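Teaching note: in complex prediction, the entire set of molecules is handled at once rather than each chain in isolation. The prompt given to students was simply: 'Predict the structure of this complex.' The entities are:
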Amino acid sequence: MIEIKNLCKTFELDGKKVEALKNVNITIESGDIYGIIGMSGAGKSTLVRCINMLERPTEGSVVIDGTDIGALSEKELRSVRRNVTMIFQGFNLLMQRTCLKNICFPLELSGVKKEDAKKRAAELLDIVGLPDKANAYPAQLSGGQQQRIAIARALTTNPKVLLCDEATSALDPKTTHSILNLLKEINQKTGITIVVITHQMSVVEEICSKVAILDNGTVVEEGEVANIFANPRSEAAKKLVLPEGENIIVPDNPDETPVRIVFNGAAAASKPLISQMAIDIGVAANILSASTKTIGGKVYGVMNLGVAGGSEKVKAAADYINSVPDVIAEEVKADV
Amino acid sequence: MFDKLLSPEVLKETWEILRTDFLFATWETLYVTVLATLFAIVIGLPLGVLLVAGEKNGVMPLPGGVMHVLGLIINLLRSVPFLILMIMVFPLTRLIVGTTVGTTASIVPLVIAAFPFVARLAESSLREVNPNIIEMAQSMGASPLQIIIKVMIPESVPSLISNATIAITTILGYSAMSGIIGGGGLGKIAINYGYYRYKYLVMLAAVVLLILLVQVFQSVGTRASAKSDKRLK
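The expected output is the structure of the full assembly:
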């Protein structure tokens, strides 16, 4: 378990104090995949570097499995870092070493015998699906493959925690998906705790069970991914969940009233809700925008409708939709 | 002065000198250059490492005063003209080699002149290492020494080789100057025959040989650097 308590980090830049983190409190359970999301400059990278003390916090503490790692000496910290490893946006492979030797690197640091290290590295190449790349150099690999090697390298020491700092931000969507799948698989197989730092909500949706939203150095929202995705309360969360700015969607047709539907974990849309509504109560709705995601067989997201035919029809539509479990409809007021 | 440069007598005489002296002179030049370069690297590379690792944000921060003195010594030694440095280090040369004259004795001032230069070259090579890779090593629990030995130096090998090539060609040039203090080699031949005895063709031949040596060092170095670089596919 990782407990981040009252964490503050202040940098001095040209004599000016910059507060990168302000009183951050996060608890990450063992075996979780925990997302920390925020726009660039929110303090995510600083926060993750405080978890392994690459950055020493100005105030507060980080407790991993009962040990306050801020209180450890550099030497003790080095052994903690074999248990809390990290992957990066830029992969950070040693370019002059083969993939196999890159994977051996952490074992080499802890003085494991070469033969044993190589054996372990070969196992990991298998796990990340690149058994034929042992003697290839990183420059010969694609970005996704390089990240796989980096993951293998981060796992050689059998760590308890894996920190992912924007690990998929340099990859295309398809490769991102495959890397996330790999992380999920490893999490399920080994029970490793994974902390995912990202600016992409899609990454959090795909693998995280819990998320903290970081804005301007503070945690503005924290909890189950599903809840936050369905009902973002803070400005920062709204921006991340609904990046297109759903607030400004208004029907082109002045006769239509905008209605916002929130899917808050409704059973996967086996029924065509909007079409069914037209048949059942005779209200035809115009879909203005929709952004829904299926997470674990449940639907989350927001849909904006334009309902024509005056307030009675709008109320009927809202009632109809509200009768479906875990779906909420509300008329969007003009000032929104 | 060049009017009788290619007369038959001159050609014959030059050939005679080439035959008798040049092989040994070339050997002496190589011996001095290679040994001086090796010693300069042995001293200069660790200093280059210190210059980078010892910085405030380096992997092994050293007290500011130490870094300051280190930079000062390197700059001081690099400012002294080689001709004068050769004479200034006579006491040290005598202490190490036992004499201040001769081929082996000329290695000492060469090393003294070259190691600060090598330190600066090594510094610039090591600075090219991606700081994110160093951060990665720290995040994996590498000690400062491990970062230097397992990350910084191996990752900058291609650049170190090409800078070593610059060092050896520069030292080759300096070694020719040591003919003045009785150091052997092609420089001595060029000075003794060409300057003191007006045998310009001999001097020219010595210079051509020096050029050839530089060419050989440079192309071997360039190739070795490229070959060692695994970033190139």
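Point out the following to students. The longest helix of chain A spans residues 173-190. The interface with chain B takes residues 52, 54, 75, 77-82, 85-86, 88, 90, 92-97, 105-106, 108-110, 137-140, 153-154, 157, 163 of chain A (CB under 8 Å).
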